[in-house]
Amino acid sequence: MHLFWILFSYEWRHFRAAKGLVLMCGLLLVSGLYGIYYGTTEIERQRQHLAALPELTRRNVAELKVKFPGPADAGDIGYYHTAFAVHHPDPWAALSLGLRDVNPSYVKLRLLGLQNQLYATDNTNPMKVLSGNFDLAFVLVYLFPMLIIALSFNLLSSEREEGILVLLLAQPVRPATVLAAKLAFRLTLVLALALLLSGVGMLWAGVPLDGRIGTWLALTVLYCLFWLAVALVVAALQRPSAVNAVALLGVWLLLVVLVPSLLNLGVAAARPVPQGIELTIRQREEIHAGWDRPKAQTMNRFFALYPQWRDTATIRERFVWRWYYAFQHLGDVAVAPQATAYAQGLQQRYNLVEQLNLLSPAINVQSSLNALAATDLPSHLAFQRSATRYHDSLRAFYYPFLFRKVEFTHADYAQEPTHTFTSHPELATTYRGLLKLLLSVAAVYALGALLLRVRSINPR
After folding, report:
1. How far apart, in Å, are the Cα atoms of 217 and each of 134, 166, 198, 223, 289?
2. Could you state, in order of their start, the residue ranges of all structural domains in the chain?
3. Tell me: the pLDDT tens digits for 357-386?
4. What is the pTM of this model?
């Protein structure tokens, strides 16, 4: 054991002398801190926007009270009044933004057709969406393997090429002890950086003290162990340093870039999903056609869905609000199967990726961290379902006014339902990802041990 620590301290002195590696660790530390800053700033910006929505609603109500100073037709109020379905972030979202940078954190709703409002989003820079946001999860998943590669590509080859390994093994020291000391130092250095950044990120984001802390740290440690295992396998082949560097970079490109890209293409082909824009266009066409249909035909279709309003007066006017909102809703009903198929298709794609992400630990860890932070696709789909239920509650609130011809007073604004939704972590997904990562680590280390047993370390 004393010899092990001598070798470990030698690795430390060697690292301090390698200014390039020290600089790389410093840059990675700065990158991680920036990732934490960006993630927390982005989530704080979203929180500020969500906190401002009640004031926007209050102003909208104040304007309507001025516009309609007395009792008003509820159809006018439903048309001009804006409500918001809000998606509050989990505190962990600051560390792994996931889809919160591309999907809206709130939906502006009126009493009109739902689908067009549900999929209406602000324009986003496509290059930014393509590259993704620079959060802590990005640093851990995509940049830390590069540091491990820089530290480990010459795990044994540099001493062999400089003639040091033959002198070292001539001493009473086992090759396994030398290799263990080298791996232990690199693991200590990498984990120190990763755990430091994780700790700073958790404190900065103010995450709750629950079991997710241990899960995040376990994913981080296992992911670093995986890439050290890959370095061990390459070192066991006992090739020159340049060959090792190219091989490790090739593995990084394969697992981080190529496999995810091919997996994305394969999943898209295996689970085709209609575009959301097709759904909204179909709904608009159905709604626009409602202006030309006989009112009796529209209302009979609506009453088949809501028979409780069938006893209302026959429409003889050229325009009446209850008829207008009826064919707005029928537009949603017409595309309901397509909307359901769209959501189910997205979920099926996600499930298929979850089944295949064992092929790429990078995808596995990224999706596990997103699930832990409640920023994954299921969280967004749950928010959309919640927004749909809220829109249903708004219709249920306004329909008695519209079909019973009850006047809408200023006091009725306070009775309108409100909405709030907070993401919840998909812990089952995270635990499955943790298990798959553990299996990957065990398999790669077993391969490295087998290669070292078959090909004993050659000092020359």
Report:
1. 19, 39, 8, 10, 56
2. 2-283+321-454
3. 999 999 999 999 999 999 999 999 999 999
4. 0.90
**pLDDT tens digits, one per residue of 220-241:** 999 999 999 999 999 888 888 8
pLDDT at 458 exceeding the cut of 80: no
Whether residue 25 has pLDDT greater than 50 = yes
